[in-house]
Sequence to fold (203 residues):
Amino acid sequence: MNFFEKVIYLLVGKMEVKERIEKSALKLFSEKGYRGTSMREIAKMAGVTKPTIYYYFKDKEDLFETILKDELSELLRSVEEKISVGKSVEEKILGFAQGYLGYFKSRQEIVSVILAELLGFVEGKKVIARDYLRSIIEKAKNIFAETKGSLSEVEAENLALSWVGYLNMVILNSLMLKKDWSVEEVTGTLKTVLHFLIQHRLI
Fold:
């Protein structure tokens, strides 16, 4: 193994360890909450020592924030990717829903973590999720603002809040009531609502 191969090997190894720590921490945060999770438990699940965790993260708060930022950035990418392929307002707003729901459907562990942070269950921390969710709502607002109707900025924002609010209720219901759902089923319902709004020139 030459020098460059050794460097690549070491870098890949470090990335794998860091990823294992983050995955273990996310699982424990979702099951036991931020306060109920210890660094010792994270280390044990990840198969590393506590000093190894502190090599990558300053403390538990730093680890939590890193996970949250990474996950929420991925949510934004998921939404933006679906919006980008849409040509009409209808395609874009339905794409928005598909990206939003699709992300949470595949990453259900993060739902309780984001919810706990938003509701202030993670004491003494700045609310990171709020800023990301504002950005997401702004994207929905901008799409509604593209409609041919005469929506004011306030009306576009209210529609965006209602749209994202409905998506959040679907996600929360599945978490609290253990009710299964599919992205296709929910977006089908939203498509019907959207057609009604367009047909009656409400947007």
About this structure: The domain at 72-199 is CATH 1.10.357 (Tetracycline Repressor; domain 2). The first helix runs from residue 3 to 32. Residues 38 and 169 are 31 Å apart (CA to CA).
